[in-house]
Write a structure and sequence with these properties.
heterodimer; A: 324 residues; Rossmann fold; 2 domains; 11 helices; 32% helix; globular; B: mainly alpha; MetI-like fold
Chain lengths: 324, 350
């Protein structure tokens, strides 16, 4: 059974220059125990689209569409029902572990506070749980760590602490927004292994946002590529990354360095800049940067349609379709 | 990994932090006495000429004996040494007006001011911080705009004018509250223990006296608080707004922590250092700068004492008041520094 089903999600934000559409009609489904990857450049609406699920958008943002979770529409929850879902069933880990932990509260306090609120545990029981969680994410000497403050930990350790905090109430879905971007490569691998282990051991589903396709290929079960507030292509990473169909996905992959492949040409930067949400091009938003654009690309927004098994594509041209 | 865990355990770090601050405090105190001493010595004018009569001035023996008596024949460093020595023994000399030890006079005036200042700052903190939070969470809505007008008004009204208006309305017109002084004439002062009439009367079990003392406090305390309410509303609003968009606040919300708790625990805690700085300065200010308000309400506090000493050129008293002002600022700064350390663990190590 599908855990989360997002349909036609749109987010508009009121700014001084008028209303701006950040997320422009996004559909996807997350299955239990699945790592659902969301890829795309900064500004493509990845983060906003998940903040909308937890209703953490800045003031002045309006959301439309549906996000069905356990028969309820997350976008319509309010007050108590919302608080019960937040942090209990859906949890979130933020990009920068340096800023996502309260600098003036002990780790123990930060890990136990919402456990006490959600589950009515005593302080002692909640701290015991927190200490177990820290052990689970492999923090050495968890008892002592409870009394420490975030600044006493390294970045990687802090991200582990943040993940422990997010998992404290045994949520079913973890939203991880670029959880490894601010970390060293070696530390990144550790965090990814941790997420992978948690998924296997406890059936946790993860929405993993990243602009790093390498990270995607190592852990995600399904990847959606965002461009200018829409999904342009999605599918399982092995196929999607080895045989991308959308010109944007292909361009993203060409822009990746391949240190292992020696002397294999230069990196191909994508020409042009991603459009600002304020003035998105009509038709396919990628057309000004696309070598394959046609008349249709300029005029009509391409719809996401199935192409092959578990793969979706939004392109009029489909220049990389496998030959007949 | 916890770097140097055994070293960074909170209590010891905190004690070392306290010790460092305290050493700084001592040096600052010494510095203040030096400045105060040098300034008084730089003032043009000869104490002998100012104090001896016309005839005695012309008698070298009289001048010499005067100088000897007051230690003016000694070198400057020696004089400073004596000054500090006496200071260390709580000897500030004798006021020329009342011929009483300055310490004794300060001892009667300071508690009156302190009682007023403490109540006033309490009012200002509760109301000002509360309104500041309210303005921040209602940012750019009607409440916020109204509070902006109110706080600006509070900050821009001259306090002495507010004092007169308050006196006119609540004492003269409505007669809700007493006008001046610390007690109505039919009450006698409670036996001095703390010098706070409300507390002393309560300790004696004189309920009526305590109530009357409290009623006398209301008007001057509120008038003194108004400016600080405006100030604190503005500063708290800014501090809160700076914090609310941090990821850790978003993270707290994402964990399903109730909004009220997010604001009062998570946001306020992070905003507190900035607010405490302002509270400290505001408190030092009402402790030392309530000259006009004390005069209007005939409040026998340090402000009145300073005013009287200044108008009669009572030098020992003026020096005593100056020292008091300096000490208040130093102590308040010390307390603010320590509170930073209590609130923000990162400061303890820095």
């Amino acid at each position: 059974m599908t855990l989360l089903e997002v349909e036609g999600l749109r987010v508009k934000i009121r700014t001084e220059g008028g209303e701006v559409t950040i997320v422009d009609g996004v559909d996807y489904a997350v299955e239990p125990g699945q790592v659902f990857g969301v890829a795309g450049e900064s500004g493509s609406g990845k983060t906003i689209s998940v903040l909308a699920l937890l209703r953490l958008l800045p003031r002045g943002a309006t959301t439309s569409g549906r996000a069905l979770y356990g028969g309820r529409d997350l976008l319509r929850l309010s007050g108590r029902a919302l608080r019960r879902v937040r942090g209990r069933e859906l949890a979130m880990v933020f990009q920068d572990p340096l800023t996502s932990l309260h600098p003036m509260m002990t780790i123990g306090r930060q890990l136990s506070e919402h456990v006490r609120i959600h589950e009515g545990l005593s302080r002692r029981a909640a701290l015991a749980r927190a200490s177990e969680l820290l052990a689970e994410v492999r923090i050495p000497d968890p008892k002592r760590a409870l009394e420490a403050f975030p600044h006493q930990f390294s970045g990687g350790m802090r991200q582990r602490v943040a993940i422990a905090g997010a998992l404290a109430t045994r949520p079913k879905l973890l939203i991880a927004d670029e959880p490894t971007t601010a970390l060293d490569v070696t530390v990144q691998a550790g965090i990814l292994r941790l997420l992978d282990r948690l998924r296997r051991e406890s059936g946790l589903s993860v929405i993993l946002i990243t602009h790093d396709l390498g990270v995607m290929s190592s852990i995600a079960d399904h990847v959606s590529v965002f461009y200018a507030g829409r999904i342009v292509e999605s599918g399982p990473p092995p196929e999607l990354l080895s045989a991308p169909r959308h010109p944007y996905t292909r361009a993203l992959l060409d822009a990746l360095p391949h240190p292992e492949a020696e002397g294999r040409g230069e990196l191909q930067a994508i020409r042009g800049l991603p459009p600002s949400p304020r003035n998105r091009p009509p038709g396919c938003a990628f057309h000004p940067r696309c070598a394959y654009a046609t008349e249709a690309s300029l005029e009509q927004v391409p719809l996401l349609r199935p192409v092959g098994e578990r793969r979706l594509l939004a392109c009029h041209v489909d220049p990389f379709a496998p030959g007949p | 990994m916890l770097p140097g865990r055994s070293r960074t355990r909170p209590p010891r770090v905190f004690l070392r932090f306290l010790a460092r601050r305290f050493v700084a405090l001592v040096f600052l105190g010494l510095g203040i006495t030096l400045v105060a001493f040098l300034l008084t010595n730089l003032v043009p004018g000869d104490p002998a000429a100012a104090n001896l009569g016309q005839r005695a001035i012309e008698d070298p023996a009289a001048v010499a004996s005067f100088r000897e008596r007051y230690g003016l024949d000694k070198s400057l460093p020696e004089q400073y040494g004596i000054y500090v020595w006496r200071l260390a023994h709580a000897d500030l000399g004798e006021s020329q007006q009342a011929r009483l030890p300055v310490t004794q006079e300060l001892g009667t005036f300071i508690p009156a001011t302190a009682e007023l200042a403490l109540l006033s700052i309490l009012i200002a903190v509760v109301v000002g911080v509360g309104l500041g939070i309210l303005a921040a969470i209602r940012q750019n809505r009607l409440t916020d705009h109204l509070l902006r007008v109110l706080s600006l008004t509070g900050v821009s009204m001259p306090t002495f004018w507010l004092a007169l208006v308050a006196l006119y309305v609540f004492f003269f017109r409505l007669a809700w509250l007493p006008g001046t002084g610390r007690l109505d004439p039919q009450f006698s002062e409670p036996r001095h223990r703390t010098g706070f009439f409300t507390i002393d009367a309560l300790l004696q079990g004189e309920w009526a006296t305590a109530a009357d003392a409290a009623r006398h406090l209301v008007l001057p305390a509120v008038v003194l608080a108004l400016y600080n309410i405006g100030l604190l509303t503005r500063y708290t609003r800014t501090a809160v707004l700076e914090v609310v968009n941090h990821d850790y606040i978003r993270a707290a919300r994402a964990k399903g922590i109730p909004e009220r708790r997010v604001v009062l625990r998570h946001v306020l805690r992070a905003a507190l250092p900035a607010v405490i700085t302002v509270i400290g300065l505001a408190f030092a200010n009402v402790m030392t700068g309530a000259v006009l308000v004390e005069n209007i309400f005939a409040w026998p506090g340090i402000g009145q004492y300073a005013y009287r000493s200044a108008t009669t050129l009572d030098l020992p008293a003026i020096m005593g008041v100056s020292l008091f002002v300096a000490v208040v600022y130093i102590v308040v700064n010390f307390i603010v520094d320590v509170l930073y350390g209590v609130i923000d663990p990162r400061i303890r190590v820095a």
